[in-house]
Amino acid sequence: MAVPTLFYVSYNDNTALTTALANGDADWAQAFIPNVQSAYLDKDENNVYWAPAGLGIDTMFVNTTTAPFDDLAFRKAVNMVVDRTQHQAIAREGGVPEPRR
């Protein structure tokens, strides 16, 4: 079955997006929703949240052609000092699996 019309709406902040999702004004989003349980899931039994197991959704892209990210040792050091447990617990409110290194 073909979709008759597809609307793409851009939201300039997560609060507006969370509100649109909770109110049914948006059907899908790829965004971090603070307090996902109370802000979205509790609003409707049909609301669903999913995060890929073991992959996490946070990624840091860097330009490896310019300093300091052109230095492999520096990139490895940055990777080693990121506290993924704290990031998962605090920044992502436990809503995503802890990412792999």
Automatic annotation (TrEMBL):
What positions does the domain Solute-binding protein family occupy?
9-91
The cross-references to InterPro entries, in alphabetical order and at most eight, read:
SBP_5_dom
| Gene3D superfamilies, per the entry | Dipeptide-binding Protein, Domain 3, Periplasmic binding protein-like II
One Pfam family in the UniProt entry: SBP_bac_5
Q: What is this protein called?
A: Solute-binding protein family 5 domain-containing protein
What organism is recorded for this protein? Demequina litorisediminis
